[in-house]
Amino acid sequence: MAACPNKDETARGGCLATGCLGLLLLLTCLQYAQAAGILVVASSGADLYSRFIVTFTESLTTGSPASDTPKVTVIYLDEREVTGDDLAASSVAVTVGTHAARSVSALDPDIPVLYTIIPESVYRALASSTGTCTRQSAIFLDQPLARQAALAQVLFPAAMRYGLLLGPTSSERQPEIDALRKVIDRKLVVNSAGYEADIAKATNGLLYRVDLLLAVNDPLVLNRENAKWLLYSAYQRRLPVIGFSRAYVNAGAAGAVFSEPEQMARQAAEILLHVNGKAAACLPAAGFPVYFSVAINQSVCSSLGGAICSEDTLVEVITGMEDHE
Amino acid sequence: MTLPHSQSVSLKRAIALLLLPMAVTSHTALAAATRGPGTIALQENEEDFTGDIDTVISATRIRQPLTESPSSVTIIDRDTIVASGAIEIADVLRLVPGIQVSYPQGNQIAVTYHGFGDAFPRSMQVLVDGRSIYQPSFADVDWVFLGIELEDIERIEIIRGPNSPLYGSNAVSGVINIITRMPWQDRGTAARITTGDLNTRHGMVRHGGKQGALDYRVTLNYQESTGLEGDSESTNDGRQLRGASFRGLWNPRPSDEFDIQLGYTAGDLGGGAEARNNPPAHDKQVSSDYEFISWRRALRDEADIRWQFYHNGYDSNDHYRQLLSDAYGQPDAVIQALLGTAPNESANFGLFDYQGQRYDSELQYTSPQKGRLRTVAGAGIRLNRLESEVLTNRTDWIDELSERIFVNLGYRASDRLLLNFGAMAENSDQFGAYLSPRIDANWLFDPEHSARLSYARAKRNPSLLESRFNNVYELDNGTPYLIDFVAKDPGPETLTSIELGYTGYWLKRRLLLDAKLFHEQTDDRIRFVNDLSLQQPFPAITSLFPVRVLLNDGFVRVIGGELQLKYQAGPRDFISAQVSKLETDASWRLQLNPDVVTVWNESIAPVYTTSVLASKTLPDGFEVSAAWYYVSNMIWLGDGDRIKGYNRTDVRLARRWKSAGTGMMLEAIVQNIGDDYITFRDENLFETRAYLRFTIDFR
Question: CB-based contact (8 Å) between A296 and chain B?
Fold first, then answer.
């Protein structure tokens, strides 16, 4: 059982990620203007989306002067459709959920749109079909591989070979993998699976060649049905799995990094506080969420000889590692 | 994308502009829709990030690291099973330090830990996915009738030493926990055929599929072989069996898992040599079935609750007739004189004629992983039933109902010190109540090296048969003429064990080393003794055939050490070695009235039991492995003999390849390349055997 590192050992001080982002926004984005309205389109009123909306509106309120709080209109797609008129009446739109993203994207909006609660692969498919990128941005549900790798390094410092299983949709992450290879002091072993039927073979091939697995989202290869297969086979081989949702940890992954809707809402509000009201505004490039949580399965972690750390400490340690880079 | 051909350029452009976004969108949609077989209209969405996954790594499945285990554990994984070249499941157990595997008959296997076994070893608990596979009758394990195939096994975990608090009664000398593969690991169809010496033909077909939230696996198998070669007349100890088994895993909700297992095996087992007579060749018709269901709910903070219920049924029909003169090896004139029978009279025989049933239900709770203490606690109830006229001299069913509760507390006293305390209390309506406690301490020098010290006391209640044995033979006119085994109110036997062990990883965790020293003593052993005070129905034959009574008598003490080493460079590139050295002394009575006590100085259990297995993968999908076994002189009890020490070398060469996505493997296995050796009884000769096995996997 490894010891949990002290966060001071890895953080160097200096700005937190949010501070850096804010600075970037100020440098690249245009001036604040009077509110014309933010349109929020949510896939439905389900818990996942309503949690986002509540935190989003609260963050907007607390982040702006009382006289200048942007007006927010919310449309729930299970109540009514979104129309071109709705978009025309707003200065910027925020979509919450994939269905909302597809619906708004299909209307070919003129106003800037921030897509949230959306997998990177879905966003990439939508973004290529409409307009120029600066008018569109997203906060992906996916976590950067570097963040999963950082958690892996802290929990299992002795593991030197990380395995990744890519599928047809996640193969687009290859550039990210190449970039990670350059900075990380670990070997990355990548296997590709064609379709769900291949996952058994592709995973087996990996299990024998690595010390740890990073689970990468790809619904064609890794879904609720076969995720348990991956977790079980990895556990039989005494391989830790670092996942991308709390569900992975509940199901037996040693640890996971993920972002709660509240965290993504906070980031969305921060982005919009700088661009709201300006029709010609540009949004920052689409990217991974800035705020994240860590979940650990203590039993699995200690069964596999991992470090025992508190989840909060891990968030701080990993944030420090990201600042370092 | 080709644009529609149009006469007017501007019209063409307008149409193109209109069609372009739709075309690209539909292209994307089409691409998404046609990616992969059977994935039409697949919508990628946030469900993959927010939806729940079925919990398969639950508290009951999570294993402590070996360095933190309170017991000595040996794990035989799938790669080891494959590399061993084992044809029977029980053969794999030779790779466990301290275990002896022997063949009382070609179709009967005896597995003991630290010797002291007869043909029906009773003091190891054997489980398949949590279901005990004990026979309620002889209370032994019928390794031929396990109802699962070697191919279905994922892993076998062996606990060397008593662990009743976690594994129940009969976990006296150890626990063998067979874990089968999850149905969703084996989707598609697979088949395997084995052919070889002893006229072996073994075929298996397996299909794994999914129906809604149910993942299932169905296996059908057929096996036949003739038995061991005797050195005198050939013995009839072959087998011909067919079986089917089913396993289904159903997750109605991610936190709930139902495991349903069903199995049925039936066939003929050849009747072989018995203790004092040689029956004519005849077949026993045997069938066994099991039904098992468990429900596990994963709770918060990695706690869980598990309930299981199972039923094992076993039916063995053994009937034959034989001339009394042949049965007892006496001239017919002597038989007539002693028993008053007519000339050349025959009688009914058949010792293995019985039916047994076991019903068991158990509930277990594992507490959350919080703080320093973790608790596993539970309770269970069991009903054993036996019906056998030849063994009990009754025609009705005999029942035994028992209840048990158990608790295991794991306390992390500090980063380096782990303490475990466990106890099981069992109450039987036949034998009363008893307690089996266990206490262990693990000291971790560092995460990779630990020492452990444990003390355990385990009790084994007599089996239903041991407590009700009344083996009476009758003439055709109903007159009893011979009483063989009679139970004389046996009570539980007790095993006390003290163990000092070490587990360590070396060479960047490539080498695992596990060693232990132990002192074990079994008191009040349940065994058969000739009682000269009891008369046979025809007193004159008493001196020839004394009555054998079953009671608690004598003790056995085993002191020794075990070592296991495994160096693993790759999944099928490894070498493992296992050694055990034993010193035994024992004392019991050879006869009662007058009492004759015997003290054993020479080793009943073998002084050395050694095994080595090496496996290597070669280019082009080839694999080669070899195993060497050595067991020194050993005495098998009951009707076993004093068996000389023997060497055995097995070799396996295999090739795996794929053709159009279908996996195939061909194996050539030779068991016992060297000299023949005697197993269990002087007539049983284990010769060199060769097998070919072909496996095909369609996915």
Answer: no
